[in-house]
Amino acid sequence: MFKGMLKGNMVIGQSGGPTAVINQSLVGAVLAAREQDSITGILGARHGIQGIMDENFIDLTTQSVEQLELVAHTPAAALGSVRLKPGKAECEKVFEVFRKHDVRYFFYIGGNDSAETAHIIAEMAKEANYDFCTVHIPKTIDNDLKVTDHCPGFASAARFVALAFMGDDRDNRALSGVKINVVMGRHAGFLTAASALARRPEHEGKSDGPHLIYLPERVFDVEQFKQDVKTTMAKYGRCVVAASEGIGDKDGNPIASTGERDSHGNIQLSGTGALGDTLAAFVKEALGKGARVRADTFGYLQRSYPTIISEVDAKEAREVGEYAVHHAASTGEAGSVAIRRLSNVPYTSECFITPLSSVAREATEMKDAHINDAGNDVTQAWVDYVAPLVGELPKMGDL
Amino acid sequence: MFKGMLKGNMVIGQSGGPTAVINQSLVGAVLAAREQDSITGILGARHGIQGIMDENFIDLTTQSVEQLELVAHTPAAALGSVRLKPGKAECEKVFEVFRKHDVRYFFYIGGNDSAETAHIIAEMAKEANYDFCTVHIPKTIDNDLKVTDHCPGFASAARFVALAFMGDDRDNRALSGVKINVVMGRHAGFLTAASALARRPEHEGKSDGPHLIYLPERVFDVEQFKQDVKTTMAKYGRCVVAASEGIGDKDGNPIASTGERDSHGNIQLSGTGALGDTLAAFVKEALGKGARVRADTFGYLQRSYPTIISEVDAKEAREVGEYAVHHAASTGEAGSVAIRRLSNVPYTSECFITPLSSVAREATEMKDAHINDAGNDVTQAWVDYVAPLVGELPKMGDL
Predict the structure, then answer these.
(1) Residue B83: its chain A contacts at CB < 8 A?
(2) Catalytic residue among A54, A59, A113, A142
(3) Residue B3 pLDDT more than 80?
(4) Quick one: which of B353, B345, B247, B14 has its CA closest to B153?
(5) CA–CA distance from B246 to each of A301, B164, B178, B257, B272 (Å)?
(6) Mutating which of B268, B300, B308, B398 best tests the A interface, going by the most A Cβ atoms within 10 A?
(7) How many beta-carbon contacts under 8 Å exist across A and B?
(8) Which class does domain A8-152+309-358 fall in?
(9) Comparing A261 with B203, which gets the higher pLDDT?
């Protein structure tokens, strides 16, 4: 225990796009906090920062473990989430509320925007000489946080995507034609790249789809795309395409979007079928009017579908929540929890703390070594990285 | 055994949109056929009628039971499927091939179009005095075949939809706004109506979504839709909508489509995000530009997603395949297999045979008693009908 132990209430909140396991982190943190003498009260903020400003709290000391375990297994943020990026006035309001409620610990579960929010508040506390500890608990299906090997929430979404492509590839095999599936991931292609797990390793180089994978890390060239589809059709008589919602042209313009923006200034890419329809139109131009071309946009199911949860992901999401509380209570130091991969077979990992500034704002993208030279597929190194996180997939039968 | 037992080869094929359990029917029929003395060879037609015309057969007597069981658990038609509706010339060609290969049994797994194909061929055989028995094995996620209580393939797709709405409703609860999900079902709303299972029975009348359900059996009135969404937003501060891809206006025009048609003359509704985007635009007109409105189109995942399979559905899909072969071998009479529900608690059912003409061509739609008066929701009678087919759903936790 550190000198001059912080004693007081804690606030925990959830922010950004929910995941299938974000409640594991919440429950992990709450159950760990209940065992800390230094944490006197546990307040859950409804809808993240918004709930703090509104003093819209729920007491998290009273629920049965049974109820909390049910919450842990339920997708999407049980406290409610928020897309608000607080400015100076909002942060001052948050402080006022923290002081009023003698809040000494703040845990914010979210992505890099949430880490930045936590960072700003930690800096304000320091300036105000207010004894306070804030820890960011990582979550994002996009897998785009810096420092950490991977992000809680990603592997369950990746499992949804891999299974979806396994089934959809059978469907395409049965009726032929071109099938385009648009996968979430604004700036990073991790989730789209997880579609490669739908190919059976023992069928390497055979006909399993997806046959083409387009990631936002590479420029999307429409003419090259048309040629890629033609080549695949000539080879297999069918073609399954995985395309990230974030693909853009050489000038960085999205291939398709509604033009709408959220409060973080992000263009709306999800919750619309525009990109899929645009890509389908390109394919029809390439193959002719009579071609059977279909496009699906997997949308919000990727982050919220129940029962399709990676065991590794659920376990790690729980662990980062627990670790955040243990770290805060034992050191009083701000930071962001990250994951270090220790071994691949069998898969093992551990948590560690990285400075908030190392995670805030900036995001990562896929390594060059994980993308093929043509920019239309992933490499074996990518499959080796992602497979242990997603876990075993069912076998498919052939005639 | 009937007098003058038919002895010869059998052909089996799969047709129309695949389902998650159509291979259960195939494997059920093949394993049953292997035990019949009257069935000498078992030929699987690649891509249904097309494979017969092309004499593109696979010998189904040689695979191990282990391999077939793996196929049975694999979504989508393992033999390949087809959308071809044969005309007179095609049927004559099919005959020629059947005679050439001494085919005396023909099993066709599909919907009402496939039943019609089977019916035409049965009639041709009768006219030609060719001893021949054809049995239609039902399958369709649309659940729109006549006579039968329900169709194999429907309950697994319904399970996918119910789970999707369970997760998506948590997502919408976390971030609020309006969420529209477009569900498959061209003329019948059965699959869209299955979204109602996402509401927890113990929360009757509470806030669980979907809050609004629009079916093709009722005219879709845009102004009424806008008003329904406004009313729901005022009540819950959020709104989850289930809309069938087949909804149309008072003149029967689809609310949105690409205008493309398949070889059956059906307008393309799936494999495009057009309807979801159109409905989202209506909501933005109603609530104002700033409203958070998202639309997903579940698409082909509904019929092909692995691991989300209803146990009742898998069992019955196997049974209709077995029953078709037992019926054909023991009576030599043409027909279509149907399912009769015997009891709801515990759920039990049995197979029976109905004339091909009673199933061919025409489709059913939802009963009036299963749709509410306002035409924007289902009734408890519908939930009672569909729940035993879909099976138990996971519990969701709340704070």
Answers:
(1) 175
(2) A142
(3) no
(4) B14
(5) 21, 19, 20, 9, 13
(6) B300
(7) 207
(8) alpha beta
(9) B203
* Cross-sheet strand order for the sheet of B238-244: B212-214, B238-244, B177-183, B293-297
Q: Is A155 exposed, middle or buried (0-12, 13-18, 19+ CB in 10 A)?
A: buried
**The total number of residues written for chain A in this structure:** 399
Instruction: From B26, B252, B19, B241, select the one nearest B150 (Cα to Cα).
Output: B19
Which of A159, A169, A171, A236 would best serve as a mutation to test chain B binding (most B beta carbons within 10 A)? A171
Q: Is B302 on the interface with A (CB under 8 A)?
A: no
Contacts of A139 in chain B (CB under 8 A): none
Q: Are B173 and A270 inside 8 Å of each other by CB?
A: no
Cis ω for the linkage preceding A86 (within 30 of 0): no
Q: Which residues of A236-259 are buried (b: 16+ CB within 10 A; e: fewer)?
A: bebbbbbbbbbbbeeeeebbbbbe
Task: Select from 3.10.129.10, 3.30.110.10, 3.40.50.460, 3.20.20.70 the CATH code of B155-307+366-390.
Answer: 3.40.50.460
Residue A74 to residue B396, Cβ atoms within 8 A: yes
Q: ipTM score of the complex? A: 0.95
Nearest to B300 among A75, A171, A299 (CB): A171
In angstroms, rounded to a whole number, what is the distance separating the alpha carbons of residues A132 and A8? 9
Q: Is B48 on the interface with A (CB under 8 A)?
A: no
A157-307+366-389: CATH, from 3.90.870.10, 3.40.50.460, 3.40.720.10, 3.50.50.60: 3.40.50.460
The percent of residues above 90 in pLDDT, for chain B, comes to: 85
Which residues of chain B make contact with A305, given a CB cutoff of 8 A? 163-164, 167
Q: What is the model's pLDDT at position A250?
A: 93
Percentage with pLDDT > 70 across chain B = 94
The helix (H) or strand (E) run that includes residue A337 is strand A335-344
Check if B345 contacts A (Cβ < 8 Å). Answer: no
CB contacts, 8 Å: B17 with chain A: 175
Is the pLDDT reported for residue B149 higher than 90? yes
- pLDDT value of residue A285: 93
pTM for this predicted structure: 0.96
Of A67, A274, A305, the CB nearest to B397: A67
C-alpha distance from residue A374 to each of A186, B200, B236, B363 (Å): 21, 49, 49, 48
Residues 4-23 on B with a CB inside 8 Å of A are: 14, 17-18, 20, 23
Active-site residue, selected from the candidate residues B54, B102, B113, B142 = B142
Q: Comparing A8-152+309-358 with A157-307+366-389, is the CATH topology the same? A: yes
Report the topology of domain B8-152+310-359.
Answer: Rossmann fold (3.40.50)
Residue B142 bears catalytic tag: yes
Q: Where are the domains of chain B?
A: 8-152+310-359, 155-307+366-390
Residues A138 and A148: their CA atoms lie apart, in Å, by 9
